[in-house]
Structure formats: C-alpha cells, structure tokens
Write a structure and sequence with these properties.
This protein is an alpha+beta fold. It has 2 domains: 41 residues, no CATH class; 103 residues, no CATH class. Helices cover 37% and strands 16% of the residues. The chain contains 4 helices and 4 strands, in the order ββααααββ.
Length: 147
C-alpha cells in the first residue's frame, strides 16, 4: 500500500473552506480520508490482480448462461475426471484431444473446464508441463490429479 494526499480535502483532513485551529473540536472531517489527510492506495499489481479475477469470473458467468457452452463445459469436466482416473493425471491437452472444441469457439473455453469453484471438484493442480498443441506455442499448462 502507498499513501497519497486526499484529493477531496487536499490533505487538510476537512472539507470546509475555513481552516480552524489544529486543536479544533468540531467534527467536520473529510468523508473520503476520515480526517487523516491521506488515503491508502493499493499497489497497482494488487489492483490488477483483483480486476483480472473479476473479469475471469464475469466471463465464466457468461459461459454458464449459454446452454450449449455450459453443456460442453460439463461434458469436458466429466472427460477430465475420466482421463485422470485412467491415466492418473490430466491436462487441458488431454481433454482437447478427447473432447474437441467446436471449430468457431475460442480455445480458451478449456480453462472453464478446470475453473470449477465447487468444493467437491475432484481435481487438484500438482504441477505444470508444456502444451503439445502447436497453437499453444509450448506454453506451460497445469497438470491435474484426483484429490
């Protein structure tokens, strides 16, 4: 966290035009900084993290609203669990091979298969490997196993 002067009161701690004595007893503190004259500002990296999580959750919500995509994701979860049971581990590449993505869909939909917020979701991330799909440019992808 970093501190910056309150832009509403200019760092004074109060909003009125009169500048009373520092030992004032009235309670006309700035509503933004609560009379401190400064505001804690979260670090940009932390703010971006929260914004990114919010955008991800919004996108997952939109996917759930589409019946066709929602069914594809549920089937993808079932396939992922089945592969994990048979091979002991599963990646998005495995799911993509066994449960192809429809041609006009964005391949990032695979992320929704593993982004379950259910407490009973039976997979857990145990590491990373490189993707074998040429379109993924050998980027790291999570390896999942049964809990």
């Amino acid at each position: 966290m970093t501190r910056r002067d309150c832009s509403a009161c200019g760092g004074a701690g109060w909003l009125d035009d009169q500048r009373p004595h520092p030992m004032r007893t009235d309670n006309n503190d700035c509503q933004y900084c609560q009379g401190r004259g400064w505001i804690d500002e979260p670090d940009k990296q932390q703010t971006d993290l929260f914004a990114g999580r919010h955008l991800r959750d919004q996108a997952l919500g939109l996917l759930a609203e589409s019946e066709l995509r929602s069914q594809w994701i549920k089937e993808g979860c079932r396939v992922a669990i089945q592969i994990a049971r048979s091979k002991g581990r599963v990646t998005s590449d495995d799911v993509r091979k066994a449960h192809p993505i429809p041609g006009d869909w964005d391949p990032r939909i695979l992320g929704a298969v593993f982004a379950s917020r259910r407490k009973d979701f039976p997979l857990r991330k145990v590491g990373y490997t490189q993707s074998t799909f040429k379109q993924a440019h050998a980027r790291p992808i999570p390896v999942w196993t049964l809990k």
